[in-house]
Amino acid sequence: MKKWVNQNIKMLTPGSGTLVNVFLFSFVCLLVLGGTSGAASKTRDRVYVKRAVDGDTLLLRSGERVRLIGVDTPESVHRDKPVEYFALEASNFTKKMAQKKFVWLEYGSEPKDIYDRILAYVYLEDGTFLNAELIKQGYAFAYRKFPHRFLDDFQEYERQARFNAVGLWGRFSRGRERYDVIWIGSKKKKEYHHPSCFRGAALPKNDLVRFYSKHQPRDKRFKPCWNCAK
Ligand SMILES: [Zn+2]
Questions:
Q1: Which residues are known catalytic residues?
Q2: Of 39, 40, 158, 164, whose CB neighbour count within 10 A is largest?
């Protein structure tokens, strides 16, 4: 747009045809004002996503990487760490949503992170807010370490996702752990729960037992909880 404005300003300078010039000049003024006051033209960029590297990281056609602000998906590409629970699902979701598509980037207070990745809020062309969607559908945690303008919203989306046991909250609702827990149980009550059960989530740590295979609770003579058996 800058180029366009400059060309028009050059057109104005010769000083012929005053009425047209006044008209053009006010038009340019409007454009310039619009450009500075409207956040859209300055803080938004349309970019092409070559590849979803991870649930929360995009590789652009330009070669730059984008890290989504405020979300933290389980890790799948750390060389020295095991793939975290639900990492592949998160990565596939982002692929399905954004890979080989044009998206809009909006920015927060910091332009880049320490890995030189662009920090951005990502919007799909249909208006879907990808950062929010990842949390809403249970593919990501709300990242709380740094404040940003959607932090409260994101925390609320995470709470909802956990409450509804969607995505990564479906099997185990005790936050971030690497596991393959299928059931959790109470040692005292000899009762077992689906990991998303509110009664299971309320178990004190010293009473909690984790089961890693489907039949383990019954083999150990645990009974299913009434809520889970519904
Ligand atoms: Zn239960």
A1: 67, 75, 117
A2: 158
What the chain holds in terms of domains, given with CATH numbers, is 2-37 (no CATH), 43-169 (2.40.50.90), 183-229 (no CATH)
Query: What gap in Å lies between CA 88 and CA 73, rounded to an integer?
Result: 10
Which is it for strands 57-60 and 44-54: parallel, antiparallel or unpaired? Answer: antiparallel
* Mean pLDDT score, 116-129: 98
Between the alpha carbon of residue 22 and those of residues 8, 34, 41, 159, 205, the distances in Å are 12, 18, 25, 56, 75
Q: How far is CA 123 from CA 35, 39, 45, 53, 148, in A?
A: 21, 15, 10, 17, 16
Is pLDDT at 61 greater than 60 in this prediction?
yes
Ligand 1 centroid–CA 183 distance in Å is 9
What is the whole-number distance in angstroms between the Cα of residue 213 and the centre of ligand 1? 17
Q: Is the pLDDT of residue 153 over 70?
A: yes
- Residue 131: pLDDT band with limits 50, 70, 90: very high
Please give the Cα distance from 42 to 40 (Å, whole number): 6
Distance (Å) from CA 211 to ligand 1 centroid: 14
DSSP assignments along 26-78, one per residue: HHHHHHHHHHHH-HHHHHEEEEEEEEEEETTEEEETTS-EEEETTEEPPPS--
- Say whether pLDDT at 157 is over 80: yes
Query: How far is residue 199's CA from residue 227's CA, in Å, rounded to a whole number?
Result: 8
Q: How far is the CA of 228 from the centre of ligand 1 (A)?
A: 4
pLDDT band at 212 (very low <50, low <70, confident <90, very high): confident
